Amino acid sequence: MSNAPHILVIDDEPQILRAMRTILTEKQFKVTTANRGEEGLTLAAANEPDLIILDLGLPDMDGVEVCTRLREWTQTPIIILSVRDSERDKVAALDQGADDYLTKPFGIEELLARVRVALRHSARTGSTQSKLVKAGALTIDLAWHVVKRAEEEVKLTGTEYKLLAYLAANHGRVLTHQSILTNVWGAADADHTEYLRVYMRQLRKKLEADPERPQHILTEPGIGYRFIADE
Amino acid sequence: MQTSSLFSSLWKYLLSFVLIASITAILFIWRDGLDTTLIALLYLIPLGTITAQFGLGPGITSAVITFFTFNYFFIEPYSTFTVHRPVDVVILVVFLIVAVVISQLVGRAQAGLSAATAREHEATQLYELSTSLAGLPNDHAIAQILAKQVHAVAQGEYVELNITGTRSFVYQLPGITHPTRLPELTVPIEAARGVLGEIRLWRSEPPISSRERRLFQTFASQSALALERAWLAQAEARAKVLEESDKLKTAILSSVSHELRTPLSTIKAAASSLRSKEVSWDSPARVDLVAAIDDEADHLNMLVGNLLDMSRIESGALKPKREWNILPEIVGSVLARMKRLAVEHRLEVEVPESLPLVPVDYVQMEQVFTNLVSNSLKYAPADTVVCIRAWQEADCIHVQVSNQGPQVPTEDLERIFDKFYRITDAERVTGTGLGLSICKGIIEAHSGRIWAENVSDGLAFNFTLPLTRDGASPPQLPVDMETE
User: Fold this and answer.
1) Which of A20, A206, B160, B234 has CA 20 to 30 A from B119's CA?
2) Residue in A closest to B337 by C-alpha
């Protein structure tokens, strides 16, 4: 069990900590908990966990600040927890380097899926990234810039491809409007969410079986988008 | 002002002298035929007239002048001021006394009369002020009337009112910049509770008389009464609103606790039976119980979300993050999520792709559609159509969600957007009774309008969304130059 991934949970609610500890231990993770931001920062430095789950509403300091301070020295993936209606805080934390988010109350499948994606991405960081992303009938070859749907090549414009490639390379993770706009269009266009709306719609029409009920290019309301690929 | 009043008093003296001179001339012609005493009597006529017409000053002056002209022209020896006959001395002295006494009497009566007129004038002005102040409901209106009256009565250059009540403000006439010098008159507006404000009057000429000062003090105390009355009325109205909202809060609490308890009971029952040994691990009932807990937890979460939204709408904290969005996308995502709930109904969508981008908050607009559609699903009978249509009007997008459910009495069409308003019995349909009022809150925060109407086969919800954001029209997208 020594190589079991180590998860640090920072939350001030004892019931949540209890539930997380039970569930994650059951799933063979090593779990440490902290109920204050300062304590969490100390434990993160001392234990070097593989993943941090951080609640945004901490009593002693702002969760976004905890995020910022962690990112000063570590690239350990961070999943933030927050209540509904705090899109602004979520986006702020994500733009400060958090990897993903979960809205309370959340289901256990959701939690485990986010944990898996975050651990996979951190394992890949720096090493060779998979150049071929498969998502249902779609195949995206990031090396050869080829997109196929059911073995048939899909014609994409330059911008459409750039957008899809960015989504696919980060599949499973939530990407904020700002990060997509900055990466695909450039920092000058970071406010033009309407570009995203329009291009995402075009992409869905070309790639999704039912553009109104997308299976791969998902909207995260108020936050951004998430690309779902095969595991 | 001063030059003209000086001029008018000079004019009075001049006229008096002209009158004395002409009488003297007339008497002089018939001097030989007239007795000295008769002349003295005749002289009293213009003297009385002058005092009555021009006041005490010209009267006394004319009396003295007449004394000399009488002596000079009509008492022998003529053309000298000397008097020979002792009887003439008596006549002269009597004449002087009578002339001065008459002048004083007439003058005093005249002054009394003009004082009475002035008092009457003051009383009229005061009456006008108090009638216009009567029943004024707010302090701004009172200040406006008071300033206008002071300005009209004083004929001043500038009037400023500083009201320092619970909400202090300044009212000025005319314009908003007062003269740089200090005001000539400052009158505090005082009431039993203390100073409520101040009247400041700028008028350099003529100087403010003590009579005017007194008048403005009376004005001030009248306004103080009116202000106190208005503030008391406002306080009472506020108290009434608080009382109403207290009643509403009680209604909310009872409705909410009922709504919250229903899913909680289900969860509690399911969880406790899972814990007990009643339900074996491989029983099919276990799956149902777990599903019930999951569903009811979601339901509870939705209820709490609605309550939070409502409180944010009420406190004005609901600030839409308006961005250019594609309406068909929002509608599509809402319907994809609601598919599970809409199995008994047919959903029709007529939201054309050609609509321009709309400046809306994506999350809030999703909620509007969710609430309107779920309301339709809740009330319309099974196997009917729920239709979502959208089209562009001059400067807005018009959206309609219609169903074939029961119609709403015309007088209730507006009230269905009120909190906790239900047409049907609360027991029959679940929900917090907040869905439609949240829609109204969100649409109004987007500067749109929402209303319901009865249509031929059911009920339709309509709302409009303006197509401009901060005055900007829907953006044109940059053309994707690099193809394939």
Assistant:
1) B160
2) A213
Q: How many Å apart are CA B420 and CA B250, to the nearest integer? A: 12
Which of B312, B313, B322, B324 is the best mutation test for A, with the most CBs of A within 10 A? B324
Chains A, B: CB contacts within 8 A come to 66
User: In chain A, whose CA is at the least distance from the CA of B479?
Assistant: A159
With the CA atoms of B100, B105, B111 and B115 taken in that order, what torsion angle do they form, in degrees rounded to the nearest 10?
A: 160
**Which pLDDT value is given to residue B483?**
42
CATH 3.30.565.10 location in chain B: 323-466
Amino acid found at B428: R
Encode A175-188: b = buried (16+ Cβ within 10 Å), e = exposed. bbbbbbbebbbeee
| DSSP annotation of B348 | E
B176 three-class SS: coil
Within chain B, all domains assigned CATH 3.30.450.40 are found at: 136-231
CATH architecture of residue range(s) B323-466: 2-Layer Sandwich (3.30)
Tokens of B266: 């289900």
SS3 state of residue B127: helix
Domains and CATH numbers, chain A: 6-124 (3.40.50.2300), 132-227 (1.10.10.10)
Tokens, residue B10 = 């000079």
Which residue stretches of chain B have pLDDT < 70?
1-5, 165-166, 422-432, 476-484
Using alpha carbons, select from A26, A173, A31, A175 the residue that is nearest to residue A108.
Answer: A26
Closest by Cα among B403, B418, B383 to B460: B403
Torsion of the alpha carbons at B193, B198, B199 and B201, rounded to the nearest 10? 150
pTM of the model: 0.63
Beta strands in chain A (DSSP E): 6-10, 30-34, 51-55, 78-83, 100-104, 132-135, 138-141, 146-149, 152-153, 174-176, 217-220, 224-227
Question: How would DSSP label each residue in B76-104?
Answer: SSTTSS----HHHHHHHHHHHHHHHHHHH
The CA distance from B334 to the nearest CA of chain A, in Å, is 10
pLDDT one-digit tens code per residue, B63-114? 888 888 888 888 878 888 887 778 878 887 888 888 888 888 887 888 888 8
Topology (CATH) of B245-314 = Helix Hairpins (1.10.287)
Structure tokens at B420: 């906790």
Distance between CA atoms of residues B88 and B36, nearest Å: 8
The DSSP line for A109-160 is HHHHHHHHHHHHHHHHTTSPPPSEEEETTEEEETTTTEEEETTEEPP--HHH
User: What value of ipTM does the predicted structure carry?
Assistant: 0.82
Residues of B in contact with A157 (CB under 8 A): 480, 482-484
Bridge pairing between strands A78-83 and A51-55: parallel
Name which of B446, B359, B456, B351 is nearest B403 in CA terms. B456
CB contact under 8 A, B332 and A212: yes
Is B338 in contact with B374 (CB distance < 8 Å)?
A: yes
